[in-house]
Amino acid sequence: GWARLQNFPLFPLKTRLCRGSGAAPTFTPIHRAGYCAFYGECGRNPEVNISLVSSKVPCLSNTPARVATGPLLALLRTVCPELARGSAETTRVCCSLAQLSALQLSVALSGTVLSRCPACARNFANLYCNNICSPDQSLFTNVTRVINRTTAQGTPQLAVVEYQCFYRQYFADDSFASCRGVRLPATGGYAIDTMCGRYGARLCTTQRWLDFQGDKNNGLAPLQIDFQLVPNGTQPGDAVVPLGGTAWRCNQALSAQEQPCSCQDCAESCPPVIAPPGPAAPLSPGQRQRRLGPLRACWRAKKKKGTAPQPAPAPAAGCSARLGDASHRVLARAFRRWGTLVAGHPVTVLAVVAVLAGGLSAGLVTLRLTTDPVELWSAPGSRARQEKAFYDRHFGPFFRTNQVIVTAPGRPSSGYESVVLGAKNFSGVLSEEVLRALLELQERLAATTAWAPVAGREVTLSDVCYAPLNPTQPGLADCCVNSVTQYFQNNGTRLAMTATQTDGKKTGTVDWHDHLIYCVNSPLSFKDITALELSCMAEYGGPVFPYIAFGGYPGSEYTEAEALIVTYSLNNFPRDDPRHEWVLSWERRFLEVVGDFQRAHGPNLSVAFMAERSLEDEINRTTGEDIPVFAISYLVVFAYIALALGEYTAWRRVLVESKVTLALGGIAVVLGAVFASMGFLALLGLPSSLVILEVVPFLVLAVGADNIFIFVQEYQQSQREPGETREQHVGRVLARVAPSMLLCSLSEVICFFLGALSSMPAVRTFALTAAVAIAFDFLLQMSGFVALLALDARRQEAARFDLCCCCGMGKGGPAGPGARLLRPLLHRYYTPLLLHRLARPVVVRGGGRGGGGTALYRDVGMVGPRLGTTGTLWVGAPPQDSYMLEYFAALNQYLAVGVPTYFVTTGGYNFSSPAGINSICSSAGCATDSLTHTIQYATRFPNVSYLAIPATSWVDDFLDWLNPTSRCCRIHRFGNLTGEFCPSTSDPSCLGGQCLNATRRPTVEEFERFLPWFLHDHPTLQCAKGGLGAYDTAVSMDANGTILASRFMAYQSPLRTSQEYTAALRAARDLAEEITTTLRRVPGTPPDFRVFPYTVTYVYYEQYLTVVAEGVITLALCLVPTFVVSFLLLGMDLRSSVATLLTIAMILLDTVGAMTLWDVPYNAVALINLVAAVGISVEFVSHITCAFAHSTKPDRVERAAEATVNMGSKVVAGVAMTNLPGIVVLAFAKAQLIQIFFFRLNFIITLVGLAHGLIFLPVLLSYIGKTPLSPPGDGALSPKCPPGGRWQPPAVPYRPRRTQPTGASGGHSGGHSGGHGGRCRAGCGAGPQQPRLQGRGQGQG
Q1: Which of 103, 512, 673, 1306 has the fewest CB atoms within 10 Å, i.e. is most exposed?
Q2: Rounded to whole angstroms, how far apart are CA atoms 582 and 737?
Q3: Which ranges are annotated Low complexity under compositional bias (predicted)?
Q4: Over the stretch 1033-1043, which tens digit does the pLDDT of each residue have?
Q5: What pLDDT shows up at residue 1310?
């Protein structure tokens, strides 16, 4: 967007102030009212080598003023009305008609940019008029130097080449003040920037303003005119009377029919503006603690009450308990029959499962991977996507940016003493050597061609570059390239130029230093004031603003910049456009060339660079490079499962007792569920993404591995009953564990289906894929894995080797129990310590200071102030070894301006009506609450609005272009082109053919006729307001000329973090809503008309506006089914269900808090992982809660201990130890996206979930868990058997088991009844075992 800035000429001013104290030796002996100092024209000044306009110097003539008659008087009344004081007989002047005509041209040129403020334009014209035509010219003029000249007729003349002018200080100051605030709508800057030479608007003063305008070296002034500002109340002597008078103030109207300057151009015209409130500061830790104090006190009071629970009589079973018992018996019976059936026909079941899974997996051939970030993170129906589609449809896609940032670390700075411009310090990077290196790079890029294989052609820069001033047939010189070398038009010869310069009594040499100093302060100049006489405009014809080409400079000292920035703007094309391949091919070659440049200059320069395609390239590269990391991660997980599932009683039986085949089969079942779900959804037309491919397998593997461990370990620890077949044994074990698996899987499936209600496409697709994958995983495990277990049991009973069932070691049972580690540790040490009467209050009160459960007030206090904080959206994406990281670091450090922000109007607004124009524009006569005025007000408070530069306005420049005092809008009056548009270049047929005969608003017909002319008018020195390049794409019209959309470009402040980007988006939308409300009040505006802000980043950062609320809603929706399913499947046990819900919620809160501490940003990717965390948390929590609910122990503490030992060991082995090895491997991935969102976040989730499941949950259940039911004698269910359990004879206490007879199941039910003379087969696999090691073990159990 920066390149859409048009050319702005300097002004042919003919004044310069002399700082002397009096008049110099004079050629004006008479200083008297009614006398001239010069008159008429004496040809061109031979001392001026280059002049951008044709102008002549006056002839020496210290004679009485002439009477203005005929055409001269008529023209005087138009150009200098203040001098037309009387009739034809009394009006005298010191200028000829030719001089006044030249003056009219000068006034027209300056009026092009100053006419938007009538007072300034009139004051500026009065300076010209008095200098050239005042009848009292000799009073304040003193000619100091003349040259001899002979006319063509041989008449000798004296041509004036230098003179003095004397002005009163107040008069000059007032004139300057009226113009100081006038804006240039096309740049958002000030008109004074073009009128003060090297000082620019920031350092311009009255003296410097006039100094520059009268400099004969500025390319427009024909001679040197030295002015002296005389302090008020003093006289210069020698009869000289300084010119004074009253200058118009900018807030004054010139007449009753005219308007004062607008607020945008004149601060005195602005109404009082109340500063909007800034963003609220985050709460301090002390404030958070005070606000959360009551919650903390309440929480502690409740816990204190619960630390010494009073024994209460066991309640009798109510209706809900009986209903829950009945439903549980139905589930257990169904799963038992199903397990027996599957175990009896394992091969058939496996064949059916393989066919179904394979058939669904075949749908992967239709899988579409979404790689476009817009499609991933922004919903098609979201506001940002709709606005982007509207913008692209009417204005085309946003430009593609290719950028190089060069610094010179360690290179010393140097001073430079300019003959003309004074002393300046130049940084180390601003040396001729570096400039030539940059020039060499740009020459190589200009000559570079790239092969486009699909198109079958070579692509050059001119094929794809953005060429604002020649968009139809651009050449290399037309391409928009912004760099410091463009101040020399990318020409090495001009960079090497030197010249001898004399400035007063000083003489020296000027070179590129002088030109650069001048151009960075006056980038719109066509000619500097040095003897080099070079233009500051870029080769393509537009200006190069220093805040784009330089970086890291203090204040406005551009020559001290630490970085030089080269920016190539390329056209963007839709992905289905063949030219999209062209630009991708050229960008690929751009990266190669700049990479070579970086390597060649690496010892001396630091080069950071990027192309528009770079980010996607780097993500794709690291995705491929990280595939081995993911493969190793999965292999580690597979190896762990394969080794940990087995139980080993003796070295000689290792090959028999290992479970490698069963583990691989279980993994195949899990992967089959993943592939089948993705294939199924692909057949339904749902696209996937790399994030889903990376997260879903981990999630399903965690869920599936947990179920595998629970099922296998329960089977290993279960003893076959007398007369029971192997198939019945498998069915009985399945009946014990399947309800728990169903509880977890059903909770997760419903959770993810509700999570699919998210508006974010990536979150929605992930949730759907995860829901279907977990559902398929449960179904396949209930069928395929049960069949695999039955086959493996048959093999082991036959003493056949694992992985090679054809071989064996003969009959014979195991020599004793298998080796165990985790279960004895939990039973003997961990559980007694955790549930000790002194430890439990510490766990609850401490809020997890040892890493366990966390008090809710601490979670809220930690999460609150840090949600949504992160670096820019992109920094987390490239890998650590990417060149993009260096570029982003340089961008954040050096870039001094933000991205363009467009305020876009939709269709229906009537721009052609006077009311419609006045509600948009910002010049004289415009409404104070117009669109451009409102944006300009906002830029006064950049800390709130995040806008740094006011909006460009095609409406304002169109009005200036129509101004009859300029040469812009003219019509051919005769000839073949009669009635057609006449460009600003001279043409006799255009004389007197102004489009408007007075300064006014155009009629509807005039607006519709002249607007297309304006939009396609090439800006020239004669008319700098031509719209081509600046506005030709800013207005979208249909074939009938109806405006369908328009845009007004402002600039954001430099933004660094996602918080700033999000705040900028929110502020811009609020500002656009205010503008919309104002414009809807314009008569004829439809109610559906609106103004919206647009920039390329909004579509990515819109997620941050809603990601917190979206996350809370999504996670809350996930927690609801977890509670409901737990409540129903746990026999309507409200307490256990609440404990499950509370623990999972605290896992999520602690996870977000840990994210803050470990610099894991909260965004849509994090939300996906948090949704997955709900599923993993269910595995950590629900199994233990289910085991507690169906335990037969007499009090809560014993039940919590039993559940922790029996089910906690399985959870650790099946979930934590399955996840952790694979997650740790991801720490070695190159992509930061994987390191941050998959390694760090999943590591946090696993450890936090494990800590809450094994530390906080058992203690919580020991306080609030459901009490056992009353004894059978009371008419209720026996406390020895939970609902669905089966009473069995008492078991002996634990002791090592002897070798079983051949054909036994290899399991043992050990344990004792806990004092009730019997034991129960609980439905969650908890069994009646008390918390000690029982039965046969396995690697981790």
Answers
A1: 512
A2: 60
A3: 1321-1335
A4: 999 999 988 99
A5: 37
